[in-house]
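Make up an example, fold above all:
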Amino acid sequence: MNIIFDLDGTISNSSEGVIATFRATFKHYNAPELADETIKQYIGPPMEETFAKYLPADQINEAVSHYRKLYKEQGGILKNSMYAGIDRLLAHLKRLGHKTYVATTKDINASKTILKNFGIIDLFDGVYGVNTAEGLYTKTDVLNRLFEETGAVKDDSILIGDTIYDANGAEDVGIIVAIVLYGFGTRQSLAGKKVEFFVDTVEELFHKFPQAKPE
């Protein structure tokens, strides 16, 4: 099976660095100061969509670039912790014969840096993220690129994420989705969405995937 992981809120708790960088970016553009809980809602959606809520249209792309620069240069990228058990889960899935991928709306270079820092990048068969130079902005864009490049069978694929943006992306490309509730989403926010299963912990994921069938 092709098991595709979201990054923020699924593999890692990135809230500290993301909140700090959003605050600095909003301050730079004289945007309103927001509560932490409000900013947490913006971990997952495309940043263009978030900044469009608070900035004029002609500042949105500039603000995204400013955010990404600050995230790297001010250390937000390092204020990030892997959820306990993710490394063991990935090794377990590989032993069972599954293929594992990352599909995230975080910038592709930042995503790879984070996964390298965690020491788990080699446990993935591919890492896919936002790449504005190649026109990849949304979860749907990123997932489409993954399937184009890998030739993975959609009927044998699942996305594991934490927010409605993951559910929408999976629906757009025609794959099933599972939701972890230890991240940034809630059951209530996914009301009406078709979800294969919910889990409260990483440990529960160990029991969701049997031995892969030989190809």
Q: What stands out?
A: The chain has a mean pLDDT of 93. The first strand starts at residue 2 and ends at 5. The beta strands are 2-5, 12-13, 81-82, 99-107, 126-130, 157-161, 176-180, 197-199.
